[in-house]
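fyi for ur records
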Amino acid sequence: MPVEWQPVRQARTHELVLQSIEEQVFAGKLRAGDRLPPERELAPVFGVSRSALREALRVLETIGVLVAQPGRGHDSGARIVRNPDDALGRLLRLHFALGSYSLHDVMEARVALERSSFAAAAEHASEQDLDTAADVVHRMSREGIGPQEFNELDTRFHVEVASSSGNALTSTLTAAVRESVRPLILRALEEVDDWPATRVRLNAQHAEMLRLVRTGRGEEAADLAELHIRGFHGTLVDEDRTGGEGAE
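which gave:
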């Protein structure tokens, strides 16, 4: 069905532009993949300045529902997308840094989400999903791997399992929660007394969780995932409560 653009009032202009675009999405007239008209055409339709329009589009880009491609070619302009993972991760990371959530809050959220993810993955994950996760575990087991690369792969492993659970929202929330504390996890990994031993221990747990998922033992995988999170993350929560630094 055709999109019908309507002029908006001039007060708090960019918010009114946002509201108008949201209404088109809610009505099903704008969907993922649709392109918005060029700024030079859209601003007059709304009855606003191009700067106000750009401000509204930047907000939509920040929250992961719009991507803007500069230039004049076929792919230029603003396009509606579905990209909640990065946006939620960025938002949650900022709120975590501002103290909106404690390390304990994050740990409990991770436990709830990942227990659900591992249990569901044992039922729904495809062989391709599990092979992808296994490749990540293998890459984490390489001799000489440093904390930074290990941390990136660690995040990817947990997100891969969540993605294979069959629940897209659980996957997105797992990625956002894990991403929110990724810099603190890295710092904690860099500060451990025996990095090689820590790497081997953590990755052995990854390998065992994956084995349990692959053999359909979802509740056991969920129990080990909780133990895995509370083990490293729990010590960091204790450090935070006693005034120490670090987080998982």
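Residues 232 and 248 are 7 Å apart (CA to CA). thats all i got for now
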